[in-house]
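Design request, tokens follow.
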């Protein structure tokens, strides 16, 4: 009898420990990293809308580090910040405003670099957002989050940046990629038989198919008014290629094959910034999409760590300081197996020279792994996310 009671007591203790471990390490964190089903979140095609969270606390005040460098939010924030120009009044000059989303709650905030203040513009609750593609005017963010019992369903919801708006809507589930312009939304649906790209309006107007391809692993984006960039998903193990697709859906290879190829089109579509690896060393070049001419650049990184200025005159990039050659790029960086210590450089397109803009390691005690870079149309403010801790930063140019 005593032995039975002893075994029963041990079993109860083990069950208690298991329950504690589950709730401490898993249950309490699930609402931060993914969108659990049935938690009042929007589920595509089922008609529910984001809830309003009146109890969400405001983030801390922006922290000036130097006269020009500001830590806007300790994060984590959703990748995909938007820098826009707005007019406060008809007599006022344009000023930059940074729209961003707090990842834990899904609330939208606006940071004013000139005033140094943060305003919560929407308290709709969509936790677990993985990425956001902002309309250029900052009015809406197309946010993507996971749902389902095994979190295998990708939902895309047009989240208005201001509370009280009724303009939110759902896009089709399980989109492989998405990009936005001031008037259009570009989406890509992929499967075992290839990919289909479609174009729709920013107000949820009917979409039109613009091209199909037997390639099923692609990234797509706008490359000018009537052309598109499509490149194979990057991997160090497989040579990738980049294509320009015209309005008729015709593919023209513009770069590759190269291992780990990543491409970033300029706003006009005239230029393509291409990064790839050779012997685990970064290489980066400019490609003229009209002529095919290639120019090697004096600095190199992953093109996803860069942003074009609105006039295509320059590129700002997070350039790693002495990256290790022991890793496979860009795979290990995307997967979080390796992080970088970056400096921000400006690449002049006409002069083909690079200029150091921000020596981050000398400005703060922390290291910077820059991603999700964005810049306003007047080239006054550069913002980026530090991939190391998902904090948001602003730098006055």
């Amino acid at each position: 009898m005593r032995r039975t009671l002893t075994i029963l007591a041990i079993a109860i203790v083990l069950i208690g420990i298991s329950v504690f471990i589950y709730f401490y390490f898993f249950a309490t964190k699930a609402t931060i990293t993914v969108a659990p089903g049935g938690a009042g979140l929007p589920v595509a095609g089922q008609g529910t809308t984001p809830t309003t969270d009146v109890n969400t606390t405001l983030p801390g005040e922006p922290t000036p580090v130097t006269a020009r460098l500001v830590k806007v939010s300790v994060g984590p924030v959703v990748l995909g910040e938007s820098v826009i120009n707005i007019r406060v009044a008809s007599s006022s000059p344009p000023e930059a405003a940074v729209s961003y989303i707090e990842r834990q709650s899904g609330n939208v905030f606006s940071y004013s670099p000139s005033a140094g203040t943060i305003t919560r513009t929407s308290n709709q609750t969509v936790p677990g957002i993985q990425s956001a593609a902002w309309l250029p005017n900052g009015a809406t963010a197309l946010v993507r989050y996971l749902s389902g019992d095994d979190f295998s369903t990708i939902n895309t919801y047009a989240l208005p940046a201001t509370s009280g708006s009724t303009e939110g809507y759902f896009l089709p589930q399980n989109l492989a990629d998405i990009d936005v312009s001031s008037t259009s939304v570009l989406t890509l649906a992929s499967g075992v038989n290839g990919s289909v790209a479609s174009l729709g309006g920013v107000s949820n107007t009917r979409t039109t198919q613009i091209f199909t391809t037997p390639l099923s692993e692609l990234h797509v984006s706008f490359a000018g008014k009537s052309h598109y960039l499509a490149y194979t998903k990057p991997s160090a193990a497989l040579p990738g290629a980049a294509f320009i697709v015209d309005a008729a859906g015709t593919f023209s290879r513009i770069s590759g094959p190269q291992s780990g190829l990543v491409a970033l089109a300029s706003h006009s579509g005239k230029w393509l910034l291409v990064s790839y690896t050779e012997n685990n060393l970064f290489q980066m070049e400019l490609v003229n999409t009209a002529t095919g001419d290639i120019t090697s650049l004096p600095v190199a990184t992953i093109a996803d760590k860069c942003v074009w200025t609105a006039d295509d005159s320059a590129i700002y990039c997070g350039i790693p300081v002495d990256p290790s050659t022991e890793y496979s790029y860009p795979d290990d960086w995307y997967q979080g197996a390796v992080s970088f210590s970056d400096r921000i450089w400006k690449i002049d397109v006409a002069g083909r020279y690079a200029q150091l803009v921000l020596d981050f390691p000398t400005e703060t005690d922390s290291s910077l792994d820059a991603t999700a870079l964005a810049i306003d149309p007047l080239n006054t403010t550069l913002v980026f996310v530090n991939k190391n801790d998902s904090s948001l930063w602003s730098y006055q140019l």
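Comment from the thread starter after seeing the answer: thanks! DSSP finds three helices and 31 strands in the chain.
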